[in-house]
Amino acid sequence: MGRPGGLLLLPLLLAAPGGAGTGSCEPQATCEACVRSHPRCAWCEDPEFPRGGQADTPRCAPREALERAGCPPRAVVQPRGSVRVLRDREPGGGPGGPTQLSPQHVQMQLRPGEERSFQVRFRRAAGGPVDLYYLLDLSYSMRDDLGTLRRLARDILGTLRNVTPSVRIGFGSFVDKPVLPYVSTVPSKLRNPCPERGEPCDPPRAFRHLLSLTGDPELFAERVGHQRVSGNLDPAEGGFDAIMQVALCQERIGWRPVTRLLLFASDDTFHTAGDGKLGGIVTPCDTRCHLDASGVYSKSHLYDYPSVGHLAQVLSAANIQPIFAVTGPNVPIYRELSRLIPKSVVGELRDDSSNVVQLIADAYSSLLSTVELQHSPLPPGISLSYEAHCGGPPGPPRPHGGSCTGVRVNQEVTFTVRVRAGACLVSPQRVTLRALGVPEELALELGTLCGCPCAQSPPRSALCHGGTLLCGLCRCPGGRRGRRCECAEEAGPGGAGGGCPPNSTGAPCSGACERHQGLPCGGPERGECVCGTCRCHPGFGGSACGCPQGGGRCLRGGRECSGHGSCVCGTCRCHPGYEGPFCARCPSCHQPCWRLRDCADCRAFGRGPLRGNCSQACPRVTAWGVPAPPPDPQAWCRQETPDGRVLLFLIEGGPWGDEWDEEREVTLLVWAEDGPAGVSPALVAALVAAPMALGLVALGVARVALELRDRRESRRFQREQVTVPCPRNNPLFRSATSTTANPGYCPN
């Protein structure tokens, strides 16, 4: 008998939330966002939380943390998931027939990120009703198999009745699409495709439904006895088209909601998706029933063969278990096919199909001893995994289904089903679990807990100065803002209807103020937040009280930031090119030796580009000439002046490095080195022009000499023309005619 609905299943359900020991809660603005963030997160709805000046204590945290921070246990909002069994008939017999799968209806509520589990029990029953559809390949090579089936037609139904009293059988045949190059389209060949003209054959059909499911063995034997073989051109058959129509045309076939078996008998391979292009067929299978009044698949010439995946999907949806009875050479191919189609078996058929009865009995036993639990398509954000308990150690969790093999009659196996919600569902969803091949289902209703069951409060709360108190936070009306809506809108920044963020805590409206180093107004030592504006203590400034006041922190040598920057919040902000805490370094600037070269020249010798205004250009520089060269020239600056002289000078008070202070008094010791005389520009021009002039002269001489030689040769030629007479015969002429005498010729 059934259990009362609505009871929480304690011994059956393993309802511990997943991830309870991992993860963390981040501060959230609302209770709903807190609940959705992590399964461990809880929310404190106490309006006075936090207490004791803990302004930055978040309301969203694990329950233990909230209670340690002072939140009363009754004010902690933490929705908890649940699993409830609404209908559970024990496995075994009952008024509606044997029950194999239990429970039948489960309701589950999950928080986002939470995982809960429950157990499904399956007990194999004996003698359940069976529907068997016999799908026979009637190509010419199966003519001896058809004769065997005529003799064994009654035995097939009798063998199944030894296992179960309620059994029905149906019959259909297939060959291939009546299109080139699969069959010959010559009219005479379409009428009689057999190679022997004297043998009568039926026209080729992709599929023909011959007998709906019936419990009458005589009718089955009669219908089989009237069939004749057909023929096609290529070895592969169109069996996939036939299987698809058997699964889709359930009303025409007569399937009941019982164990459904499909016996597929053939002696060759199969066509699959894409093979239809050979016949000019490119439209994919449309997953519809297309049987005409005579039971023939009438649109096989319009739709391509189905793919293996498509076929497996349709068979699984129709809860049909196929039995592939094929001859020996094709067994390996169909075994690979069976791996891709759930709950299918392969049996080796003798050449004349004489073992078909035993093959059906063995396949039926194998299929019923395998229990495979699967589910319907899942809604987005939900995942399921299965752990099978088949009598031995439990297997590893599988994401798509769990299975047990070798299950005996009345043996009970269990499956642990784990369900995890990765996101919130828009509405409750229904998922169906079932054992393949068994006409029973488990309905799983899924919902997610994404809201907060906070205590109700009046719409206009006195605590919120006319606002609404929701889950411990005030929702302020237009013109008010602040933690308790205590601030007028014009008292601080904010848009219309603004206010503190919903999760603001601590001092009035502290959440609306800017933060420095993560604290409102930089913390209590720097300032306080008053109605959305930071009121800074003496010594601090800025919108978030993050700037120490006074420029003394930026002074060096009496100048702010060395004169190369500005002081902002007690820190030097340097001009481009300068760096360092006081903007005293300038890696890209010229060094002191180059800076002081002209000052050393004009102060010590009255020369150089600054000699006219030396006192204005070098007011803080004093230079003294030394009578002798320096003993250590490496320590002195060595600079060449624009007029070619070399100055060596020592800067007293160094070293300077990259830092340069223009306000510092500088004393220079200068000595002029006798360097090489400067190169005159005129000399440079002469040195450049001389080679060019010599080259031009050489070119002119060569050109004159060539001209004189040409003239001399011309005059000699003219003289020879006048003095030498023209010869009559050209000494260079050679005649084109040659004469050869025959030495053996004797004239008469």
Note the main attributes of this structure.
748 residues, flat, 13 helices, disordered N terminus
Task: Report a brief summary of the structure.
The protein contains 13 helices and 39 strands. With 748 residues, it is of the alpha+beta class.
Can you walk me through this structure?
The chain contains 13 helices and 39 strands. By secondary structure, the chain is α+β, with helices and mostly antiparallel strands. The chain has a seven-stranded mixed beta sheet with strand order 1-6-8-21-20-16-18, with no helix packed on it. It has a six-stranded mixed beta sheet with strand order 12-11-10-13-14-15, sandwiched between helices. Strands 2, 7, 9, 17 and 19 form a five-stranded antiparallel beta sheet that branches.
Percent of residues in beta strands = 15-25%
Q: Which structural class is indicated by helix and strand composition?
A: alpha+beta
The outline comes out as flat
Q: Report the average pLDDT across residues.
A: 81
Helix content: 10-25%
Task: Report the uncertain regions.
Answer: 1-23, 491-511
Strand order of the largest sheet: 1-6-8-21-20-16-18
Q: What is the count of β-strands?
A: 39
- End-to-end span in angstroms? 150 Å
Number of helices: 13
Major sheet characteristics: 7 strands, mixed
Rg over CA atoms, rounded to whole Å, is: 52 Å
